[in-house]
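note to self: dont lose this again. the chain is below, predicted strucutre after it. 244 aa total, dont forget to put it in the shared folder this time
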Amino acid sequence: MSTQTPPRPKIGRRTLVIAVAVVAALLVAAIAGTEAYARHQVSRCISSSFEQQMGSSIDVSFGPKPMLLTYLDGKVGSVNIDSEDNKFGPAVGMVVHAEFSDIELDKNTGGGTIGSSRAEVTWDNDGIRQTLGGMVSGVTSSASDKTLTLDVLGGLAQLQVVPSVRNGNVSIETKSAQLLGIGLPTDLVQGIVETFTQSLQSYPLGLQAKDLQVTDDGIIVHLEGGRTTLESTTNGTDQAQFTC
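---
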């Protein structure tokens, strides 16, 4: 007498589809969670390093490459950076938009290298006035004659300057400085011009001035940079505060 093996239960098509959908949803959720973690880590690493060298709070956005791949290989195609607090080093009212390309991160130190960069710095007249301090009560600019006029001594005197770019640096030339038709003291003029120039001289991460435009609202400086080092963020010792 032979015994028959009971038939295996059949898996319905609907059940199979549901099972595949559940597995796919779990996989997508896992990838999304890992991507979010990688984005947070890379963003924290880059933001801290850039903020330390730029002297300004920044907002960071990345190119299309998934951050999970960046977290694994340490390479970032491009990073866009915008200053958040309208202050760039000592300059008040200076807004910076920058793009850094071909970044390679060192996950052990939080530093790395930057392949190339470019930036646009916009500085409005009121920000220039605030930066230059108490002797300057007002600033106006003219796109037509490329000059800025600074009201000095409560508006009793005016100092006209012409900014330009020379050999990667911004130069401020005095066009006229008069108080009721009489020349202003040299020390006063020199102090204002030096403060103005210093606020436009120091750019981080290998950036150098390439072009400058005077507008009716202020000035715009275009910067470019080549390969340079992205320093690690430290806490005063040789140890990095975090790793990427």
